Structures are given as structure tokens and as C-alpha cells.
């Protein structure tokens, strides 16, 4: 991926950077794997806002991705590398020998025409999907299962990858992108490689309007509100520690449940 700068003919363009898309194929998305996506504007099933500052944005179509990678023993050929508006990473269109087409997350370095495989006895090469117990130590992986058969959940954003750190008994210890060391069941699957579009973090939106295109609405400080609208509202919040509108402390307060079942699998907390 290349990053391009713009001629500063307007104040906002002075700081705006964008993608060149030179590594992607100039084609429309696969119609059989694409469907409409309705905008919920941060609201849940009950119609109440559960995520603040969401709404508007450009219309998108949803690409159905294969996180299960259950085409065992069937070779798949990379037909195209495409852009996905719903995620930071690129996606790859795979055409299998039996004629079925699927989208997967595109790892860094994957090219059009490459062959990928899934299964227990496939080699740990770029784009292949196999159980963690068959991964050599030090292998960079992504789209990692936490529960066998559920599909990839960890390390799915642009430039993300985990590293196989150790193997002991029924579990494999992984070093996650956050720095957390976590044990995962050895039969869970993962894909070899680093997620593509690693330079996404270096992009600069440049102006507020571009943030609106992504469906992000403006943020108003609590201190600028009235007391009825926010705990910080009024002329001053009286030296109160920062909190959310519902009163949950915003800095340093641990919100993870203390008796969460999966805590026993965490060897070392994130940084």
C-alpha cells in the first residue's frame, strides 16, 4: 500500500493523506458474496443508542468473509485483491477447485494467482490455515479462533498479527498485538501471515468532513454541557475525576469482570 499526499489548495488538504490502492485489482465486488448493509447509527435492537457518536456516513455493501476456513484439502486460487469499506484490511477473492468462491482477509504479501490451502497437514506458508498445534514457534499468524469451530476472532485489523510463543499440553501460548500473553486450545485454527494494509495507521483524515463520511459524528465535551446532560456539566465539574455520561470512571478504571471464565487463560496482561 502506498500513501499519497495532496497539493494544499485548501487548508484541510495540507494535512490530508490517502491510499493509492495500487496493490488492489480494479474490479467490482463479487455479487454472490455481497449484500446490503443497513445503518443502525449506534442503536441496538431496542432502538436505544449503545454506541455514541455514530450515524450518517457513506452507503456501504457488506462482503461476507470466510472466517471458518472449512474448505479442507481443497486448493484455492487468489482471483483478486479488493477493498472492503467495512474494515481496515484488504480482502482476497478465492476461487476453489470445486468452483466455490469465498472472501478471506488478505495477508501481507499475498498476490493474485497464489494458491492457499486449509487443513491439518498443510504447510505453514502464507495464507494457509491450520491448527495452532501444527504452527512452528515464532510464526506470525492472524484471524485466530478462541473457540474451536467458531471462526477467527483475534488479530483481524490492518497490520495485526500474533506470534506463537510456546506449546504445553492442550494449549498454545500466543503473544497478541496488545502485548497480552494468552493460552488458546491447540485445535483452534489460525491463518499464517500478517494482515494486509499495515500502513493504515499512518493515514491522516485531514478534515472533519472525512470523519463524517466514515459515519463518525462530532464529540462534545462533558464540561460544555448542562448538569442535566453530563456529570461534568455546568461551569465546572468541581474537581471530579473524568467519568462517562453514566458515571463510569474514564481513566484507569478496570471494567473487565473479575470472575470472567476466560481470565484463567491469560498468562500476562496487555501493556
What order do the helices and strands come in, and which of them pair?
Layout: E1 3-5, E2 17-19, E3 34-36, E4 61-63, E5 76-82, E6 91-96, E7 101-105, E8 115-116, E9 129-131, E10 140-142, E11 144-145, E12 152-154, E13 162-168, E14 171-175, E15 181-185, E16 189-192, H1 208-213, E17 266-268
Antiparallel strand pairs: 1-2, 3-4, 5-6, 5-8, 6-7, 9-16, 10-13, 10-16, 11-12, 13-14, 14-15, 15-17
Structural account:
The protein is an all-beta fold and 271 residues long. It contains 1 helix and 17 strands. The chain has one helix spanning 208-213; strands at residues 3-5, 17-19, 34-36, 61-63, 76-82, 91-96, 101-105, 115-116, 129-131, 140-142, 144-145, 152-154, 162-168, 171-175, 181-185, 189-192, 266-268. The strands form 5 sheets. It has a 7-stranded antiparallel β-sheet with strand order 9-16-10-13-14-15-17, with no helix packed on it. It is globular, with a radius of gyration of 22 Å.
Measured between the Cα atoms of the first and last residue, the distance is: 28 Å
Structural class: mainly beta
- Amount of beta strand: 15-25%
Count of DSSP E strands? 17
Instruction: Give a quick account of the main beta sheet: strands, pairing sense, barrel closure.
Output: 7 strands, antiparallel
Q: What percentage of residues falls in helices of 4 or more residues?
A: under 10%
Q: Which stretches of 5+ consecutive residues score pLDDT under 50?
A: none
How many helices? The count is 1
Mean pLDDT: 92
How would the global form be characterised? globular
